Amino acid sequence: MRIMFVGDSMTIGSAGDYTWRYRMWQHLNRTYGGPYRIVGPRDTLYDIAAAEPVSYDYGDPAFPERARRHLAGWGEGWLHMAPLIADAVRTHKADTLLISLGLIDLGFYTDADQTAANVRRFLTEARSAQPHLRAVLLPVIPNIRATTDAPFAAECDRFNELLAKTVADLSTSASPLLLASPPEDYLLDRDTYDGTHPSPSGEHLLAAAFADALHQGWDVGAPYEPAVFPR
After folding, report:
1. Cβ contact 23:207 at 8 Å
2. Residue pair 73/12 in contact by the 8 Å Cβ criterion
3. Which candidate, 2, 210, 200, places its Cα nearest to that of 91?
4. CATH code for 2-218?
5. Residues in the chain where the model's pLDDT stays below 50
C-alpha cells in the first residue's frame, strides 16, 4: 500500500505542528500488519512568517523523513490539485489517496457545484495514472467562517451533499472510493487553534476519520484508538 495525503492547510500544517499525517502514521505503525509506504512530492510544513512551505519544524523531530511525504499546500484546493494529481500519482506510484479538500475552494475560489466538478476532474486525472487507485474523501468539516456566514455555511452543506453523490457515482470495484464520516463532536475552541486549523486533539480526530474509514471499508488496520483531551 502506497499512501498519499492530499490536502490544504489543514493537511500540510504549519511550523511546530505534529499534523494529522503524523497521527495517521503512528496509527498505521500500531495497527497495520502489511507493508506500506507514505509517498508524495512534498515533505515540508508551511512557515507562516516566511509565507512559504519551507519548514521542517515538525512537532516531533523524530517523525522520519520517509513518512513526511504528501501533496498538500497552504491555500490549495481541488482546483489546484486536479492539474497536479496525475503526475504525482504516476511518479510516486500511489495507490491509496487520503484526501481532505474543499474548504479553501469554497472560501476563495469556487462555489459548491464548481468545486464538485473539480472533484470529478481530480479523480479522472488520478485514475489516468493509476486505474486501480482507491481513495478516501473527507467532507468539509466545521470551521469558524461557517458559524457567522450563513451563505458560506450553506455552500459547505451543498458541497458535502455533492461530494457524497460523487463518491457514490464514481466508485467502482476496480477503483473504489470511500466517504469518510466527519469527526463527531468537533469543537472549534478545543479541536482547532484558530477556528480552522487543527489543534492536537483535532489532528487525532481527523486521523481517526480516515483510519476508521479504511478499517470499515477495506479492513485496513484497526479502529482508531481514541485520544482523551480535556474539554
Report:
1. yes
2. yes
3. 2
4. 3.40.50.1110
5. 231
